[in-house]
Amino acid sequence: xxxxxxxxxxxxxxxxxxxxxxxxxxxxxxxxxxxxxxxxxxxxxxxxxxxxxxxxxxxxxxxxxxxxxxxxxxxxxxxxxxxxxxxxxxxxxxxxxxxxxxxxxxxxxxxxxxxxxxxxxxxxxxxxxxxxxxxxxxxxxxxxxxxxxxxxxxxxxxxxxxxxxxxxxxxxxxxxxxxxxxxxxxxxxxxxxxxxxxxxxxxxxxxxxxxxxxxxxxxxxxxxxxxxxxxxxxxxxxxxxxxxxxxxxxxxxxxxxxxxxxxxxxxxxxxxxxxxxxxxxxxxxxxxxxxxxxxxxxxxxxxxxxxxxxxxxxxxxxxxxxxxxxxxxxxxxxxxxxxxxxxxxxxxxxxxxxxxxxxxxxxxxxxxxxxxxxxxxxxxxxxxxxxxxxxxxxxxxxxxxxxxxxxxxxxxxxxxxxxxxxxxxxxxxxxxxxxxxxxxxxxxxxxxxxxxxxxxxxxxxxxxxxxxxxxxxxxxxxxxxxxxxxxxxxxxxxxxxxxxxxxxxxxxxxxxxxxxxxxxxxxxxxxxxxxxxxxxxxxxxxxxxxxxxxxxxxxxxxxxxxxxxxxxxxxxxxxxxxxxxxxxxxxxxxxxxxxxxxxxxxxxxxxxxxxxxxxxxxxxxxxxxxxxxxxxxxxxxxxxxxxxxxxxxxxxxxxxxxxxxxxxxxxxxxxxxxxxxxxxxxxxxxxxxxxxxxxxxxxxxxxxxxxxxxxxxxxxxxxxxxxxxxxxxxxxxxxxxxxxxxxxxxxxxxxxxxxxxxxxxxxxxxxxxxxxxxxxxxxxxxxxxxxxxxxxxxxxxx
Length: 798
Prior knowledge:
single chain; 798 residues; 16-stranded antiparallel β-sheet
């Protein structure tokens, strides 16, 4: 009884508040200003439920819904956004939700709902005030930035035809300011005005820009750096003073990031309490002088490391996983977190997915010594119950699943998870690959979640370029890296690879069709075929003293023997025609004129541990091959080709990679063949072997025509260091050495040629650009290449 009395009292008070609060005079049955944004508490919700129950008992049905104030937005559009309906009871909660829904459309600056008596029920009146529509956007005072570029890049998102949004205007100002700061205009001033025509409800937006002058940095001074050199601090910064190859413009956002970088640098060197401040001075020429003031604080050193709670692994075994924050080394939070990561990764590699490790550091402020403790709760070993794949709309589950090294029933293993991610990344099908886990249905079991974000795998590209090997060349290419021959009509998602490429140039004409199925009949055996026609006209400047036409095809089978070891077998048949040989040429060239058929079988064994096949930073590639041409396979020539290669990648610094390559090979005749055909011999010199020399001009040369003759054995060594200036641009420096010997028995007898040089590596949508300048180190007088050579190529490699 008390609860009923209390409920009626609440209803009465709410009705009094509703009828009395509005300033305008309304009828007793009119409810106004229903726009509330207060959180609903439990008591309020209980009260509203009571009110709603009372409304159901007493309220009449809605007989009409009237829209007022709308001009551009039709009444039907507004009605479609709300849940208040004719011939339904009126509920205040629904009305409040309708107001929110109408605001969320972004069409209105004000919305209210009133009710009034109408016939034998109620009339709901929805009053709206539409936002003005932007009629014109003016960029006043903009000279440095291109207006069309600002609009195209959507630096400002306020556009003609959209509704005026003041929050968006403020965001546009911030975006414009960032663009100016990127270009060194840190003193730029930007504001906006919005002139609204009350009659037409149209708005003219004016961004008022005062660009002011760009401030150039004359000098950066470092003060208080007693333990770190100025050069090391400057190297950590992006802000630079003006010099020959740097404009030295001041960028506020970049400079603030630099101050954080300096603090991080000091922290990694054992000074976690270091503070960094700055001040600026200016001269009468408009130059800026930056003073960076550092208070280094005390240097902290790790004195001891203790591990508690470990049961299944000894302290010594766990201590061996710590590399950074160990006794005797400087202490930093970054080092501590790295070692914590190492411990967690070790436990994960052993299946302890549920292991919890908490770190703590006790600091002696007097001595600067730090005692580190790791408290471990190992918990139980976790097993994979199920592997769920999400996010793939084109790629079949099995294409992803076969690359995952963990299967249901396996113990969780961090190393296998990492390898699985590397394999999925190397497919080139996904923009992002993320692993997660969810509880399974059984104790100590987890479901492995593989979330992928697919990227575009099909491409149609065309273009042209120049290389020092093929000279001027144009190409058209169609490629689908995630092809599916059985998925008509889309032909995607099966993990197959299909490429068609046509090239036409001043000395070359090539056609190629290639197909690869990496899992034949869902077994881990790859199958593929190639069909091609290659023509290379005679051109002595690129090492061809003859014209060559090559028509051929190949069948390929491959199998993975282990995680990093793979074998391939290739059958190849080619018809080769040699023509256009000078009358003064040696017998080596003349006897090759005409058409020959080559039939061969090649065996290849490769060990590949690279972390990423597209952009490796560590790992090796070791490959050996044996190819038998002729003999039991028929054809016009009989010889063996042995070839081996070794590549190693490692990185000592961020964004830097060192690559070492070693290649060697030998050719041996048998049967009815006395000499290796000139078109099958080894050649060196040029962009792919020893830079700084003309193409194919290292090794035996025709004494009369100066055309290369090639050899039966080869040895090439390359070392290259690359540094990523940008994500798609790398600077390279290199050292090349090697030679080709006419006879296999002369292998390694000397006359090596070597070079050094600089280069650029640029990734573009149509393929990589490679630009090198090589300078030969040991040429003899009159020998080609003594002045050094540029090597340029723009193409794709298959």
